[in-house]
């Protein structure tokens, strides 16, 4: 039965000529709303199509972006090439430095060997203790491990060649420092020995003259009794110069009982010399004299039987035979 379509629009759908009709009805308002909605969708689609499909792309903008990106790539490539060149130059410089360092290490080793040989000869010539100054052994060192470096004892170097060279340089530096210290100590000892030898009495105290009395027990010329003679007597012309037989400081210059006019000189290291029976004294107390300086004139003062020099040598206050020091 037909539906009432006076108040609305009707849409009749049938399946074939004999099929049952299907009625779809909708109001005028609904129809208008559907038409407006459809037209809105069409308008929106047309706008979007015009924006994304129909409008031509911005070629200038794309070209500008492409050129900027290409410029960045070229700049990065140039920077990378510069880094590669610097790396190559650094590597070549390191290789040259390694070769130079290797030659220097060889030179240092040869010098240290010569230094060891020289040190051994110096020890033998100086007559020093081989155990105290041994140039054949390495320096004796030690100490607790440095925990701040994680027990590594230093910074680990990369590269076998560089590590080996650094190790050799460190060892050579230690050997050189040790040898330098030993040689400085040897020099000090030799210098002190030379000073002591220079300060040690040695020489003949006057020009000419002869040994008229020896050191030790003798018959006293005044009493005729046996007595101990603390020095030696050297006879010479009266007024002849009396010379110091070693450098030192004058500690006595004047009359002294038994010696007449006496000059006493302190030479250091426990040595003193006395020159007695002088006619005149030409130095004063506190004066420094060198070996061979004139300090008095041969005389016959005090307990003396004729012009001569009474020479005494004392070591740590004890009189010793001056004949071992007389260079004649």
Can you describe this structure?
The protein has helices spanning 28-54, 59-126, 160-199, and strands at 9-13, 22-26, 210-213, 216-219, 226-229, 232-235, 241-243, 248-256, 260-268, 271-281, 288-289, 294-298, 308-315, 318-320. By secondary structure, it is an alpha+beta fold. The chain has 3 domains: 9-54; 69-137 and 158-199; 210-324, Glucose Permease (Domain IIA), CATH 2.70.70.10. Strands 3, 6, 7, 8, 9, 10, 11, 12, 13 and 14 form a 10-stranded antiparallel β-sheet that branches. The chain has a two-stranded antiparallel sheet with strand order 1-2. Strands 4-5 form a two-stranded antiparallel ribbon. Strand 8 and strand 9 form a beta hairpin. Helix 2 runs parallel beside helix 3 (160-199). The radius of gyration is 59 Å and the shape is rod-shaped. The protein starts with 8 loop residues before the first strand and ends in an 8-residue tail after the last strand. The model is unreliable at 149-159 (pLDDT under 50).
């Amino acid at each position: 039965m037909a539906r009432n379509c006076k108040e609305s629009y009707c849409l009749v759908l049938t399946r074939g000529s004999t099929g049952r009709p299907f009625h779809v009805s909708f109001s005028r308002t609904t129809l208008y709303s559907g038409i407006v909605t459809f037209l809105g969708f069409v308008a929106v689609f047309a706008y979007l199509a015009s924006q994304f499909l129909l409008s031509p792309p911005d070629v200038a903008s794309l070209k500008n972006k492409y050129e900027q990106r290409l410029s960045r790539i070229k700049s990065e490539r140039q920077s990378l090439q510069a880094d590669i060149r610097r790396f190559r130059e650094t590597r070549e410089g390191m290789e040259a430095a390694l070769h130079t360092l290797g030659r220097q290490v060889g030179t240092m080793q040869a010098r240290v060997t010569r230094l060891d040989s020289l040190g051994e000869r110096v020890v033998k010539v100086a007559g020093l203790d081989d155990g105290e100054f041994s140039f054949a052994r390495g320096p004796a060192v030690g100490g607790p491990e440095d925990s701040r470096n994680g027990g590594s004892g230093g910074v680990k170097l990369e590269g076998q060649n560089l590590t080996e060279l650094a190790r050799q340089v460190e060892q050579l530096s230690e050997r050189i420092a040790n040898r330098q210290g030993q040689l400085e100590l040897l020099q000090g000892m030799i210098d002190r020995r030379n000073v002591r030898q220079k300060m040690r009495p040695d020489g003949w105290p006057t020009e000419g003259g002869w040994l008229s009395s020896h050191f030790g027990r003798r018959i006293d010329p005044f009493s005729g009794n046996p007595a101990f003679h603390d020095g030696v007597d050297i006879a010479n012309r009266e007024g002849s110069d009396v010379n110091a037989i070693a450098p030192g400081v004058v500690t006595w210059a004047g009359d002294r009982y038994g010696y007449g006019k006496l000059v006493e000189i302190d030479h250091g290291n426990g040595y003193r010399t006395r020159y007695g029976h002088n006619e005149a004294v030409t130095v004063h107390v506190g004066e420094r004299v060198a070996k061979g300086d004139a300090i008095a004139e041969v005389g016959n003062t005090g307990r003396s039987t004729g012009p001569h020099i009474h020479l005494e040598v004392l070591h740590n206050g004890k009189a010793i035979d001056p004949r071992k020091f007389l260079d004649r």
